TrEMBL record:
Transmembrane segments: none
Binding site for substrate: K215
Top-level taxon of origin: Bacteria
Keyword Ligase: no
UniProt-listed Gene3D superfamilies: DD-peptidase/beta-lactamase superfamily, Sporulation related repeat
Homology family: Belongs to the peptidase S11 family.
Domain SPOR, first and last residues per copy: 339-423
GO molecular function, one term: serine-type D-Ala-D-Ala carboxypeptidase activity
Name of the protein described by the UniProt record: D-alanyl-D-alanine carboxypeptidase
BP-aspect Gene Ontology terms: cell wall organization; peptidoglycan biosynthetic process; proteolysis; regulation of cell shape
Organism: Ectorhizobium quercum
Signal peptide coordinates: 1-23
Active site residues per record: S53, K56, S113
Length: 423
């Protein structure tokens, strides 16, 4: 009787979730055959939702890309800014002015879903939070994520950081296809940092056979989100659940989707649904059909206040992908200018034709001159003149002229150009 009772309770839970999914205004679900691209299930798949910590999937995608391109190594130590250290939980307790290796930062994102590590990694990749947001949104467009806009690297509330269940499935497949050697990091069960051990928030890794990742997420505005990759024999699917009322109901619904649709997935097909990086078109039409524009959910007052407290700058709502990227670029420039003005003295060490070149120079400078640059914030500022675009590699946040000049002196001894300015 005990076994029968448990079975009936579990069945009622699954049926209840399936029956109420459509009635939940935040719910969206999507399941795709990762071999053929056939959509096996879709409910509100193209309605805009808040990604929450699913955002960190893109942070990790860009980190994997930088590692493969040689712009950084897993042993590279990245600086923890005051902004990163001040992020609200979930976090691993990084201190402003400290450093963390790229490897540890990535593990902190995969397991603890640490916001402090995500911000540090995002600032390292993009030169600033706004710079990262632009990179992430441009990458989303390149991957075929037509309804996604990123504003930060962690997923904490921002009313204009939105995505869809279909877009998150595209990102999940892209992570698997483009980085097969690095994807295994999503299977990490626990992560040790200092004297602490952090378990993975994705409990399905231990509960459901065949699940090999990917990421959980939650903020008040989004509900409980989950992207899951699962394989069984020659079958493979990626599934997305967004807007769960609790973590338990979300996980139960995901288990049901896997059980229901894995047997319907094909045993044939070679994958390759998201084309190799830099190649167009990047997404098959079965994954990314024409997207219906859906309204962006409205944040409650307290969530809007939280967004403002995180330092977000208002940006006019864009229309269309190109306008969206342009508006985000403008916001990035405004944000970087604001950070520099607030930080006192700034030094510039290079102006390059590419953002990646500027980031590489900043990383090299910090590794060679760690002392004077310990508390400085690396920035990449885009500047357009005469129809050309250059990227200025800068360090900001010096308390005064003496500290800025000291840093310049140390940089020049190591072969870097440098000039200092106030404001």
């Amino acid at each position: 009787m005990t076994f029968l009772t448990r079975l009936l309770v579990a069945l009622a839970l699954v049926l209840g979730i399936a029956g109420t999914a459509a009635a939940n205004p935040r719910y969206a679900g999507f399941v795709i055959d990762a071999r053929t691209g056939k959509v096996l299930y879709a409910e509100n798949a193209d309605a805009r939702r808040y990604p929450a910590s699913l955002t960190k999937m893109m942070t990790l995608y860009l980190a994997f890309e930088a590692l493969d391109a040689g712009r950084m190594r897993e042993t590279t130590r990245i600086a923890v800014s005051r902004r990163a250290a001040a992020e609200p939980p979930s976090k691993i307790g990084l201190k402003a002015g400290s450093t963390i290796t790229v490897r540890d930062a990535m593990l902190a994102l995969v397991t603890k879903s640490a916001n402090d590590a995500a911000t540090a990694l995002g600032e390292h990749l993009g030169g600033s939070e706004a710079g990262f947001a632009r990179m992430a949104t441009e990458k989303a467009r390149a991957l075929g994520m037509r309804n996604t806009t990123f504003r930060n690297a962690h997923g904490l509330p921002n009313p204009r950081q939105v995505t869809t269940a279909r877009d998150m499935a595209i990102l999940g497949i892209a992570l698997r296809e483009h980085f097969p050697q690095r994807y295994a990091i999503f299977q990490t069960r626990s992560f040790s940092f200092g004297k602490q051990v952090f378990g993975n928030h994705n409990r399905l890794l231990q509960q459901v056979k065949g699940v090999d990742g990917i990421k959980t997420g939650y903020i008040n505005a989004s509900g409980f989100n989950l992207v899951t990759s699962a394989r069984s024999g020659n079958r493979s699917i990626v599934a997305v659940v967004m807007g769960g009322n609790t973590a338990a109901s979300r996980d139960a619904h995901m288990r049901d989707l896997i059980a229901r649709y894995m047997p319907k997935a094909s045993t044939r097909g070679g994958g390759g649904l998201v084309a190799k990086r830099g190649v167009s078109p990047v997404v098959t039409s079965s994954i990314a059909p024409e997207i219906r524009q859906a309204p962006v959910p409205t944040l409650r007052a307290e969530q809007t206040v939280q967004s403002a407290s995180l330092g977000m700058l208002p940006v006019p709502e864009p229309r269309g992908a190109q306008a969206e990227v342009a508006a985000l670029a403008q916001a990035a420039d405004q944000s970087e200018t604001f950070q520099e003005a607030a930080g006192g003295w700034t030094i510039q060490i290079a102006a390059t034709p590419g953002r990646d070149d500027a980031l590489s120079i900043l990383e090299r400078a910090r590794s060679r001159v760690p002392g004077p640059l310990r508390d400085a914030a690396p920035l990449v500022v885009e500047y357009r003149t005469g129809g050309q675009t250059v990227y200025r590699a800068r360090f900001a946040g010096f308390s005064g002229k003496d500290s800025a000049w000291q840093a310049c002196g140390a940089l020049k001894k190591h072969g870097f150009n440098c000039w200092a300015s106030e404001g």
